[in-house]
UniProtKB/TrEMBL annotation:
GO CC annotation, single: membrane
Species: Scylla paramamosain
Stretches assigned to the STAS domain: 505-582
Name of this protein: Sodium-independent sulfate anion transporter
Source taxonomy: Eukaryota, Metazoa, Ecdysozoa, Arthropoda, Crustacea
Spans through the membrane: 70-90, 97-121, 141-165, 260-282, 323-345, 357-374, 394-414, 421-439, 451-482
Length: 656
C-alpha cells in the first residue's frame, strides 16, 4: 500500500514538474514573443518614417521644392543674423553666442523635424530665461543649460511625457508670453537711449531709466527711433497688394513684386546694415557700438561640466545647484513654445508632439557642442519662413549655411552695428507678442479663465517669469479640482401623472463620483431628501455622469443609504454603469438600483404602500439575495405587496 502511494506521489510530482516546465517554456516564449514584436515595430518602415521624417519628403524632392527652400532659407538667414546678435545681448552674453546658436538647430531639424515651416534658433523668451539663470553672465552656464535642456527634452520624449504640456492652458501661455514681451522690451530701453545700467525687473528698468534720463545720448535715441519707424513701415510693406503676385503678371512685374516682398521680410538685416554703414562713416564716439566680436566658427567640443569663478574651479554639481529651477523651467518653456508654433503652422494636420520633442532635444544637445545657448522654435522667423514659400525643412540648411558664412567672414564688420539699432530690432520683434487681442475672446468663452490669464501675467511682470507659469498652472489646477470637489447638482421634483403630488425627487450630479466630491454630493442628496422631499418622498439619484467610483466614495454612499434608512425614506440609484455598480455593491448590501423607469415606478409603489420585505424573507441574507438578483421587477410578485419596513426598498438590478 505504501509502495503504491509512493508511486502515485512520484507520478504526481513528475506531472507537476512537467506542467511547471511547460509553464516556464510558455512564459519564456511569451516574453520572447513580446520582445520580438516590439523589435519588429521599432525597426519597421512606419517607425523609420515617423522618427526620421526626412525619409518621407526626400524621395519626392524636386526643383520646385529646391527653389522655394532656397528663397525661404536666404530670407530667414537675413532675419536670424541680426536677431541672433541682439538676443545674445538680451541673454547677457557677447554677440557671437547668438550666432553660434543660430545654425546647428537648422541642420538637425532638417533630419528630425516634422513641420516644414519651423526654424529652430535663439528667441527672445529663451534669451531672457538664459539671462535669468546664467550666473554672473558666464557663458559656460548658458551652454550647460542648453545641453541639460536637450537631455531633459529628449528624455521626456522617450517617456512620452508630452501630455504634461496640456496642463498649461492657453490663457496661461498668453499671460506668460505677453509679460515676457514687455519685460524684454523694457530691458532694451537702455540701449535705445544710449544708457548703461543693470536691471532685473520691469519696475527696476523703468526706475533706472528715469534716474539716468539726463545722460541720454541723443544720437543713439534718434537712430533707435528712426530704426523703429522704418522697421514698422517695412513690416507693413508685405501686406500691401503691390507685393502680391498676380496670375497675369509679366516676368518683370513678378520679379519686382518678389523683390518688394524680400525687402519687407529682410527688413532687420537691411536696417542693421544701413545703420552699420552710418556708424562706420561717423566719428567713432557718435554712437554706442556693439564692439569687437570673436571671429570665426566655434570649436566643436563637449559642453563645459566645470567652470572658473575668480580663480576658483566650480564643478558640475555646484553648477547645477547654481542654475536651480532653470533646469526644469527652460526645457518646459522650450517645449511649450516649439509645439505651440508647430500647431499654429500645421495647416490642419495632426502634430506629433513626441517627434517634435525628439527634434528639439537633439537640437539643444548638439547645439551645446558648438557653444549654443538654449534654443527653440521662433514664431517670427517661422512666419517669415512660411510666407516665403518654404517647401520642406531643407530650407534650414540654407539658413544655417548663411549664418556659418557670416561667422567665417563678416564678424569683423559686426562691431560697427549700433546698439540702439539692435534694441530697435528686438523691440519691434517682441511688441507683437503681447496678446492683448485674446482678452476679449477669453472673457466671452469663459470668464473664469481671466483669473489664470491675469495671475500669470502680473506674476511674470512684477515677480519672475518662471514663478508666473507656476502660479498660472496652480490657479488652473485649483479651478479644475474645485470643479471636481464641488460638482453642480441639479435637483428637480417629478410629479405624478395626475399632478396631484410629487412622484419622486430627482438628484442629478453633473460629474464623477470620487473622493474629493463625495461629501458634497452626499450633502446635496441629503439636502434634497429633507428639503423638496420633506423626509418622506422617494429620492432618485441619477448616476449617468458617474464614470467610476473609489473606496472613499463608496463609504460615503453607504453612509448616505444609512441616513435615509434611519429616516424611513426610500433612496434609489439609477443609470448606474457596471463599474460603479460593482463598487457600490462591494460595501452596500441593501442598495436600490433601478435600471429603467418601470423599476423606479415599482420602487415608488412599494414605498408608498409601506411594504415589509421580511414578510417573505427573514434576515439580512434574504435582502442581499434580492438586491443582487438578476430577475425582472415584474416577477417580484408578493415582494411588491404592502409592506411595513424601515429598510430601503430593494429593486433588483438586471442586465437590460
Amino acid at each position: 500500500m505504501t509502495e503504491k502511494k509512493l508511486a502515485s506521489l512520484g507520478k504526481a510530482e513528475e506531472g507537476k514538474s512537467g506542467k511547471l516546465t511547460m509553464n516556464q517554456n510558455s512564459n519564456t516564449r511569451s516574453v520572447s514573443d513580446i520582445v520580438q514584436a516590439r523589435a519588429r515595430k521599432f525597426f519597421s518602415k512606419k517607425t523609420l518614417h515617423q522618427r526620421l521624417p526626412i525619409t518621407q519628403w526626400l524621395p519626392k524632392y524636386n526643383l520646385e521644392s529646391l527653389e522655394g527652400d532656397m528663397v525661404a532659407g536666404l530670407t530667414v538667414g537675413l532675419t536670424v543674423i541680426p536677431q541672433g546678435i541682439a538676443y545674445a545681448l538680451v541673454a547677457g552674453l557677447t554677440p557671437n553666442y547668438g550666432l553660434y546658436s543660430a545654425f546647428m538647430g537648422c541642420f538637425v531639424y532638417m533630419f528630425l523635424g516634422s513641420c516644414k515651416d519651423i526654424t529652430i534658433g535663439p528667441t527672445a523668451i529663451m534669451s531672457i530665461m538664459t539671462h535669468e539663470y546664467s550666473v554672473d553672465k558666464n557663458p559656460d552656464y548658458a551652454i550647460l543649460l542648453c545641453f541639460l535642456s536637450g537631455i531633459i527634452i529628449f528624455a521626456a520624449a522617450v517617456c512620452n511625457l508630452g501630455f504634461l504640456i496640456t496642463f498649461i492652458s492657453k490663457p496661461v501661455i498668453a499671460g506668460f508670453t505677453s509679460a515676457a514681451a514687455i519685460s524684454i522690451a523694457s530691458s532694451q530701453l537702455k540701449g535705445l537711449f544710449g544708457l548703461s545700467y543693470q536691471s532685473e525687473s520691469v519696475i527696476e528698468a523703468f526706475s533706472k531709466l528715469f534716474e539716468n534720463i539726463g545722460d541720454t545720448r541723443w544720437q543713439d535715441l534718434t537712430l533707435g527711433l528712426c530704426s523703429i519707424v522704418v522697421l514698422l513701415l517695412m513690416r507693413k510693406l508685405k501686406d500691401l497688394k503691390i507685393t502680391k503676385v498676380q496670375p497675369d503678371d509679366s516676368t518683370y512685374v513678378r520679379i519686382g513684386r518678389k523683390m518688394l516682398f524680400l525687402i519687407s521680410v529682410g527688413r532687420n538685416a537691411i536696417v542693421v546694415i544701413v545703420a552699420g554703414i552710418i556708424a562706420f562713416a561717423a566719428k567713432s564716439d557718435t554712437f554706442t557700438l556693439t564692439g569687437d566680436i570673436e571671429a570665426g566658427l566655434p570649436a566643436f567640443k563637449a559642453p563645459p561640466f566645470s567652470t572658473w569663478d575668480n580663480g576658483t574651479e566650480i564643478y558640475f554639481s555646484e553648477m547645477v545647484s547654481n542654475v536651480g529651477a532653470g533646469i526644469i523651467i527652460i526645457p518646459l518653456i522650450s517645449i511649450l513654445e516649439s509645439i505651440a508654433i508647430a500647431s499654429a503652422f500645421a495647416g490642419g494636420k495632426t502634430i506629433d508632439a513626441t517627434q517634435e520633442m525628439y527634434a528639439l532635444g537633439m537640437c539643444n544637445i548638439l547645439g551645446a557642442f558648438v557653444q549654443s545657448i538654449p534654443v527653440t522654435g521662433s514664431f517670427s522667423r517661422t512666419a517669415v519662413n512660411s510666407t516665403s514659400g518654404v517647401k520642406t525643412p531643407a530650407g534650414g540648411i540654407v539658413t544655417g549655411l548663411l549664418v556659418v558664412l557670416a561667422l567665417a567672414f563678416l564678424t569683423p564688420y559686426f562691431k560697427y552695428i549700433p546698439k540702439a539699432t539692435l534694441s530697435a530690432v528686438i523691440i519691434c520683434a517682441v511688441i507683437f507678442m503681447v496678446e492683448y487681442e485674446t482678452v476679449r475672446p477669453i472673457w466671452k468663452a469663459r470668464q473664469l479663465d481671466q483669473i489664470p490669464l491675469w495671475g500669470t501675467f502680473l506674476t511674470c511682470l512684477f515677480w519672475k517669469l518662471e514663478f508666473g507659469i507656476l502660479v498660472g498652472v496652480g490657479i488652473n489646477l485649483a479651478i479644475l479640482l474645485y470643479g471636481v470637489a464641488r460638482p453642480k447638482v441639479n435637483v428637480s421634483t417629478v410629479l405624478r401623472k395626475d399632478e396631484s403630488g410629487p412622484h419622486y425627487v430627482l438628484v442629478e450630479p453633473r460629474s464623477g463620483l470620487f473622493f474629493p466630491s463625495v461629501d458634497h454630493i452626499r450633502g446635496q442628496v441629503t439636502k434634497a431628501g429633507v428639503g423638496p422631499a420633506e423626509s418622506s418622498v422617494m429620492v432618485v439619484v441619477d448616476c449617468k455622469h458617474f464614470t467610476g467610483i473609489d473606496y472613499t466614495a463608496t463609504k460615503g454612499m453607504k453612509s448616505l443609504c444609512q441616513d435615509f434608512e434611519r429616516r424611513h425614506q426610500p433612496l434609489v440609484f439609477t443609470n448606474v454603469t457596471p463599474g460603479v455598480e460593482r463598487g457600490l455593491c462591494s460595501l452596500i448590501d441593501d442598495i436600490v438600483i433601478a435600471r429603467s423607469s418601470d423599476q423606479i415606478d415599482a420602487a415608488y409603489k412599494s414605498a408608498s404602500s409601506n411594504a415589509v420585505a421580511e414578510n417573505l424573507y427573514s434576515g439580512d441574507e434574504a435582502i442581499r439575495r434580492v438586491s443582487r438578483s438578476e430577475g425582472d421587477p415584474e416577477s417580484l410578485g408578493p415582494l411588491l405587496e404592502p409592506m411595513n419596513s424601515a429598510r430601503p426598498i430593494i429593486v433588483p438590478a438586471h442586465n437590460p
